[in-house]
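Example pasted here:
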Amino acid sequence: MPLNISAFPKCYLEQIAAGQMSVFEWIETAKQLDADGLEMYEGFFTSFESGYLDLVGEAIHSASFKMPMLCCSPDFTAPDASKRKREIDREAHMIRIARRLGGPRTVCRVLSGQRYPEVEWEQGREWVLQALHELIPVAKENDIVLGMENHYKDGFWKYPEFAQKQDRFLSIINAIFETDHFGVQYDPSNAVVAGDDPVELLRQVAGRVVSMHASDRYLTEGTLDDLRQSDGTLGYSPNLHHGVTGKGLNDYDSIFRILAEHQYRGWVSIEDGMNGMEEMAESIAFLRRMSDRYFPA
């Protein structure tokens, strides 16, 4: 059975978050896309009041979309304990909003937090695990799935992801034994940026993937080794650009083959459009073809 495809407007992320484009305008614009759903970002909302959220939900439904994931960026590694508590409380609220807008089994994204220079690995890992253990009961209560993403850096953060590298990401994931309401939000391009092998990471987590971002990167010049920093990561190098999914560095045949072998049934969200809506449409068409090939009706 073919996979459902959703769209995330990375091209409009800053405009929507800054109020220069409303979430309602994005929903209207997205009608031109061959997508089944629209992924939302917590920064898209100008209010968390019930009436406003209901208007957003009605706009998504009226446009014949579903909302498969609410993309959130909690910061569980902040040195200030009171800030960590606020981040946990906020993520719990986002879980409830995800249920309101998306219904049961909607994915609510979680991250580890920022890589603050003064926070040692073992301490930060302990804080992240404490936060996740507090949030999993909230996810269960609302029948929502927490999806921890192998991330690089939220656009509004100062520091990169605490658990950016594969070994750190797996150290946290493998310490959480809940599998019904917690899993992996897999992003192959973020693995590239981390200096890791996206396919190898997927092999490690394939049985726990609950959602997936599908974007692609290509090099304008040089090699990945030329971009590698002292910690092995690449970061958002000016030589590493977004492009049409399927035309870049990611091996999507291997990715979809592994997902099919593990009977993946979650959503694939196209994270694209940096060079215009035409590229986003082309990326979605590519994902449709891959879905038909590896997940036939």
Q: What stands out?
A: The two ends are 4 Å apart (CA to CA). The chain has one domain: 5-294. The chain has a mean pLDDT of 93. The domain at 5-294 is CATH 3.20.20.150 (TIM Barrel).
